[in-house]
From TrEMBL:
Belongs to the LysR transcriptional regulatory family. Pfam families: HTH_1, LysR_substrate. Gene3D superfamilies: 3.40.190.290, Winged helix-like DNA-binding domain superfamily/Winged helix DNA-binding domain (1.10.10.10). Residues 3-60 form the HTH lysR-type domain. Keywords: DNA-binding, Transcription, Transcription regulation. The lineage of its organism: Bacteria, Pseudomonadati, Pseudomonadota, Gammaproteobacteria, Lysobacterales. SUPFAM superfamilies: Periplasmic binding protein-like II, Winged helix' DNA-binding domain. It comes from Dyella kyungheensis. Coiled coil: none annotated. This is LysR family transcriptional regulator. PANTHER family: HTH-TYPE TRANSCRIPTIONAL REGULATOR YBHD, LYSR FAMILY TRANSCRIPTIONAL REGULATOR.
Length: 298
């Protein structure tokens, strides 16, 4: 049988209205179109569905049976189609995320690419910002949520720890420390250091790791971006301490620092503010991706 939804909807409208013109109006169709759908349906089924008079249109026994059965089925089908449409609409739109530069480069590209594949109608707009600006953007509602480093516990944000990112030593292959498999923090005593400045969420953590071990930091340069830091290390101006999620170019090497010190990567949103369905979708996808690569803390 070759029966269409249009034919069934036209049949149901005529059976309920018992009038072709009123049925056509309810369907926003012309009366000839409705009459054609009914005629085609009767021809396909090989049975008359309506008794027609000049004043009314009444279902036959077969028509009444079809009306009772098909009405329930079509109502259920409309519900299913409406749900599918709602799911599609839920995944269409734009999500704004603020992220510190090391995470914008080391973590977010994979998430954006994954969401582009899974949800083609979803657009993620990344705001690549220093830590202080990430906090301001979330606080001011300019973005849906942020990806930050150990934000201060001020009560302004709801947060969820995403992963721990260990600090590593970055140096040239010909540096004496490159010969070690692991480098104790105390080995950094007196060596020229090139570190990110205090706009970075990592800097205060690095300072604490050094100070807590009584190491006097010999900071010769402070930069606003790891790219600049690495170029200075390449030039032989010093060594650096950097998050593992911000790997240097192949011209440099990294070595684990012992004992391990890490920064906490945290998802943050405005306190007691619900995420939009789209933003919640991306938030959860970030968690799933880090869990899949074993980066979520236990």
């Amino acid at each position: 049988m070759n029966i269409s939804l249009r034919q069934l909807r036209a049949f149901l409208a005529v059976a309920r209205q018992q009038h072709f013109r009123r049925a056509a109006e309810s369907l926003h169709l012309s009366q000839p179109a409705v009459s054609r759908y009914i005629a085609d349906l009767e021809a396909e089924l090989g049975i008359r569905l309506f008794d027609r008079t000049t004043r009314e249109v009444l279902p036959t026994d077969a028509g009444r049976y079809l009306e009772s059965a098909i009405g329930r089925v079509l109502d259920e089908l409309e519900g299913v189609l409406s749900h599918v449409h709602s799911e599609s609409e839920r995944k269409r739109g734009k999500v704004h995320i603020a992220s510190v530069p090391t995470l914008s480069a080391g973590l977010m590209p994979r998430c954006i690419a994954d969401c582009a594949t899974r949800y083609p109608e979803l657009t993620i707009q990344l705001h690549d910002q220093a830590q202080t600006m990430v906090l301001d953007s979330v606080r001011g509602g300019e973005v849906d949520f942020g990806v930050a480093i150990d934000p201060p516990l001020t009560g302004e944000f709801d947060s969820e720890r995403l992963l721990r990112d260990p600090f590593v030593l970055v140096c040239r292959p010909d540096h004496p420390l490159a010969k070690l498999d692991r480098v104790p923090w105390r080995k950094l005593q007196g060596l020229p250091l090139i570190l990110l400045d205090y706009s970075s969420g990592s800097r205060r953590l690095i300072d604490h790791a050094l100070a807590s071990r009584g190491i006097e930091a010999n900071v010769v340069q402070q930069t606003g971006h790891t790219f600049t830091t690495y170029r200075m290390v390449e030039a032989g101006l010093g060594i650096s301490v950097s998050p593992a999620l911000a790997p240097p170019p192949p011209t440099l090497v990294t070595r684990p620092l012992t004992p391990q010190e890490s920064r906490e990567v945290v998802l943050i949103k405005r306190r007691q503010r619900s995420l939009s369905p789209l933003a919640a979708l991306v938030w959860e996808r970030l968690r799933e991706l880090t869990r899949a690569q074993g980066a979520l803390p236990q």
